[in-house]
Amino acid sequence: MRTMRKTFLPFALPSISEEAIEEVAAVLRSGWVTSGPKVKQFEKEFAEFVGASQAIALNSATAGLHLALEAIGLTDEDAVITSSVTFTASAEVICYFGALPLLTDVDPIHNIMTPKTLLDLINRECSWNGKILTHNATGKKIRALIPVHLAGYTCDMESLIEIADRYNLYVIEDAAHAFPAIHKNRMIGVWGDFTVFSFYATKGITTGEGGMVTTNHSELADRIRLMRLHGINRDSYNRPGWYYEVVEAGFKYNMADIAAAIGIVQLHEANGFWARREEIALRYNLAFSDLVGVKLPLPDEQGRHSWHLYRIEIDPKIAKIGRDSLAEELKERNIGTSLHFIPIFEHPYYKKNYNFNRENFPNACRMYEKALSLPLFAGMTDEDVNDVMSAVKELLG
Ligand SMILES: Cc1ncc(COP(=O)(O)O)c(C=O)c1O
Predict the structure, then answer these.
(1) Cα–Cα dist 182/205, whole Å
(2) pLDDT digits (tens, 9 = 90+) for 33-90
(3) For 185, which of 42, 327, 390, 395 is 20 to 30 Å away at the CA?
(4) Which residues, given as ranges, of the chain have pLDDT below 70?
(5) Contacts of 254 (CB under 8 A, 6+ apart)
(6) What is the reported pLDDT for 229?
(7) What pLDDT does residue 236 have?
(8) pLDDT (0 to 100) of residue 4
(9) CA of 178 to the centre of ligand 1 (A)
(10) Taking a C-beta distance cutoff of 8 angstroms, is the pair 327, 391 a contact?
């Protein structure tokens, strides 16, 4: 019998507990709703959770990526390397400075930047004079690397950091998908110079909108704190009187206490959310293991996959139906899906301004034809999970 749900199952939904709602209500009643004690507490608890010395709360991960690049003093004479398979945020922040975004291809299994895809780019397009890595075609100086832990599968941080050290590059991890993820016994949050997390609605934990930067560089952390609130040298919660000084032209990127109140509760619930996500992902893997022409996501053998997304790949030559038909049929059965991601070089803005050569991205191009994300979130009921499994097996089995 054809699986048909009565209600639509989105591919992702946040899980908000009554406790989180009550904490927000308490903040609303307290008279202090913007950045204040809740933000401080969230930062402290988040830093402890991942084991970082500094955590700076912001109103998005995009703000975090922007401020990390600002803190290292990026200019329009510079370039930054990121992955071709990511959300535009990882690349757009480079463009904010007039700097050049350079894209690596991804590996064919997890679709992430690897030491090999990084070195392919460096060897093909850059030269090293013993001090500076320069982009040959533009003369721009490569300053940083933004690896992306796509779906929550962690990049090989040891090797990427080793390459970054060799070429004097900062490492700014885009960990929007990677909370709570572990790489070789250490949490994502302590590896690179900066790690940037997202608390957007569908992420491992949410604050509605929000982000966090962790770092062990205390001076650069101070710079981010300064620039997140207009370049004012004291935050308003701690300001004793009316006097303050603007020492830079900063930004308006602070997190509000309303959001931090949700974040604190979500942080306490994070391991439970993760366990449920993993349980669902492993059940899917078991259920789909004998489908022909379907590549399933692998657990992280050396750490902990955050299971932010459950991405499969459909090989149109072997599978019963192709990716687009599968998405369409699932939608007809009231099951939502998504695609992570349209490669950066396929978007009109990047095409118009940077003229990337698609031939340099064979794996990203293949991925784009095949990938599909199925519903995965902590609040899915067993019935939801069974509906997805039955429908996918009906269509591809
Ligand atoms: C890989 C990646 N990086 C960055 C971001 C930006 O996060 P935010 O919406 O918190 O700015 C997202 C958001 O979806 C993302 O998927």
Answers:
(1) 16
(2) 999 999 999 999 999 999 999 999 999 999 999 999 999 999 999 999 999 999 999 9
(3) 42
(4) 1, 236, 238-239
(5) 34, 35, 39, 57, 58, 59, 228, 229, 235
(6) 96
(7) 67
(8) 86
(9) 11
(10) no
Q: What local confidence, expressed as pLDDT, does residue 77 receive?
A: 98
Testing ligand 1's pocket by substitution, the residue of 149, 198, 207 carrying the most ligand atoms inside 8 A of its CB is 198
* Ligand 1 atom index nearest CA of 199: 10
CA gap 389, 247 in Å, rounded:
56
**Per-residue exposure over 19-50, b if at least 16 CB sit within 10 Å of its own CB, e if not:** ebeebbeebeeeeebbbbebbbbbbeebbebb
Residue 290: its pLDDT value, please?
Answer: 96
**Residue 284: which residues within 8 A CB-CB, separation 6 or more?**
296, 310, 374, 376, 385, 388, 389
Q: What is the pTM of this model?
A: 0.98
Which residue among 87, 96, 341 has the greatest number of ligand 1 atoms within 8 angstroms of its CB, and so is best to mutate? 87
Atom number, ligand 1, closest to the C-alpha of residue 202: 14
Tokens encoding 235: 């935050």
In whole angstroms, what is the distance from residue 70 CA to residue 103 CA?
20
Distance (angstroms) between ligand 1 centre and the Cα of 89 equals: 6
Long-range contacts (CB closer than 8 Å, 24 or more residues apart) made by 346-351: 347/88, 349/88, 350/91, 350/101
Is 167 buried (19+), middle (13-18) or exposed (0-12) by CB count in 10 A? Answer: middle
Catalytic residue numbers, as ranges = 203
The pair of structure tokens assigned to 283 is 């059940």
Third-level CATH fold of 270-396: Aspartate Aminotransferase, domain 1 (3.90.1150)
Amino acid at 105: D
**Ligand 1 pocket by Cβ (under 6 Å):** 60-62, 86-87, 89-90, 148, 174, 176-177, 198, 200, 211
| Per-residue model confidence (pLDDT) at position 33 | 95
Q: Is the peptide bond before 341 cis (omega within 30 degrees of 0)?
A: yes
* Tokens describing residue 84: 């071709």
Q: Which of 187, 181, 192 is nearest to 216 (CA)?
A: 192
Structure tokens that stand for 335 in this block: 């099951």
Which of 94, 200, 308 maximizes ligand 1 atoms within 8 Å of its Cβ, making it the mutation to test the pocket? 200
Domain spans, the chain: 18-267, 270-396
Q: What are the residues facing 126 on neighbouring strands?
A: 135
